[in-house]
């Protein structure tokens, strides 16, 4: 696959996921907008506000002028304060206002992506005020797929409307989350040299991956089966996603949702560091 095809793949996956969010919300009863999600302090409305805010900022829209309350228990640092401001600004918006704004942002952002002349490896900035950073264009798109699809799943769980767990965006998200697994095992959990850790994920997007820690303590990942690994984790795809995105800790999963075999102490260290997203 060429770099330009990769960009198109990410664009298509983003489009499918964000339009799925729009479809979810189209006929949503007004009281459902206040349902809590697994994002601390955020309701359905707040998650949608966040998606709108990030895509608007990528379009170059100015940040809203708003004073953030000081008593928000879930806001603990400057990054969270930055993300919270446009969310809190929209807490008084009605359901029709929210759906209309989301639809308008999707139209504008889709047009911008379609007309973009940026090369896949061209460096672009991610606009986030004092937390802005530069990255390749195709990596920006990949991270937007992850963020939008993860929030689509936040909404689906809150609304009890499951779906799209094996969508194009789900596959992009899986690969991006797996890319961080060697660091979790080798660095965060401190797995000793020579260790092997198998992650066996079942469900609509099933896969099996082995993380190997070499003699220098560096981790790598492959799809080869490892016999007698030091640790094997078996979990369903949706719960893997929830663990890897910090929506739940291992001890918060339903009984039987996660099976741990092998070195329990190492497994506990891996699971304690499993979250890869803020």
UniProtKB/TrEMBL annotation:
<dbReference type="InterPro" id="IPR034660">
    <property type="entry name" value="DinB/YfiT-like"/>
</dbReference>
<dbReference type="InterPro" id="IPR017517">
    <property type="entry name" value="Maleyloyr_isom"/>
</dbReference>
<keyword id="KW-0670">Pyruvate</keyword>
<dbReference type="InterPro" id="IPR036527">
    <property type="entry name" value="SCP2_sterol-bd_dom_sf"/>
</dbReference>
<dbReference type="Pfam" id="PF07398">
    <property type="entry name" value="MDMPI_C"/>
</dbReference>
<feature type="domain" description="Mycothiol-dependent maleylpyruvate isomerase metal-binding">
    <location>
        <begin position="16"/>
        <end position="156"/>
    </location>
</feature>
<dbReference type="InterPro" id="IPR024344">
    <property type="entry name" value="MDMPI_metal-binding"/>
</dbReference>
<keyword id="KW-0413">Isomerase</keyword>
<dbReference type="GO" id="GO:0046872">
    <property type="term" value="F:metal ion binding"/>
</dbReference>
<feature type="domain" description="MDMPI C-terminal">
    <location>
        <begin position="172"/>
        <end position="269"/>
    </location>
</feature>
<dbReference type="Pfam" id="PF11716">
    <property type="entry name" value="MDMPI_N"/>
</dbReference>
<protein>
    <submittedName>
        <fullName>Maleylpyruvate isomerase family mycothiol-dependent enzyme</fullName>
    </submittedName>
</protein>
<dbReference type="GO" id="GO:0016853">
    <property type="term" value="F:isomerase activity"/>
</dbReference>
<dbReference type="InterPro" id="IPR010872">
    <property type="entry name" value="MDMPI_C-term_domain"/>
</dbReference>
């Amino acid at each position: 696959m060429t770099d330009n095809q990769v960009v198109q793949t990410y664009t298509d996956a983003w489009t499918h996921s964000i339009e799925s969010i729009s479809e979810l919300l189209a006929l949503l009863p007004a009281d459902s907008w206040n349902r809590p999600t697994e994002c601390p302090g955020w309701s359905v409305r707040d998650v949608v506000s966040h998606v709108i805010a990030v895509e608007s900022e990528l379009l170059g829209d100015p940040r809203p002028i708003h004073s953030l309350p000081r008593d928000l228990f879930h806001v603990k640092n400057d990054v969270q304060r930055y993300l919270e401001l446009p969310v809190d600004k929209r807490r008084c918006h009605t359901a029709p206002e929210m759906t209309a704004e989301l639809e308008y942002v999707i139209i504008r952002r889709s047009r911008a992506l379609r007309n973009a002349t940026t090369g896949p490896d061209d460096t672009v900035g991610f606009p986030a005020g004092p937390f802005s950073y530069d990255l390749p264009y195709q990596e920006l798109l990949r991270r937007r797929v992850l963020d939008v699809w993860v929030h689509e799943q936040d909404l689906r769980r809150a609304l009890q409307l499951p779906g799209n767990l094996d969508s194009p965006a789900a596959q992009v998200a899986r690969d991006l989350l797996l890319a961080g697994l060697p660091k979790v095992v080798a660095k965060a959990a401190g797995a000793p040299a020579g260790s092997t850790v198998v992650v066996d994920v079942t469900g609509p997007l099933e896969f099996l991956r082995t993380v190997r820690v070499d003699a220098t303590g560096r981790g790598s990942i492959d799809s080869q089966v490892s016999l007698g690994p030091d640790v094997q984790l078996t979990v369903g795809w949706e719960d893997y996603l929830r663990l890897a995105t910090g929506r739940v800790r291992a001890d918060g999963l339903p009984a039987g949702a996660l099976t741990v075999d092998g070195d329990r102490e190492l497994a506990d260290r891996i699971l304690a560091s499993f979250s890869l997203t803020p």
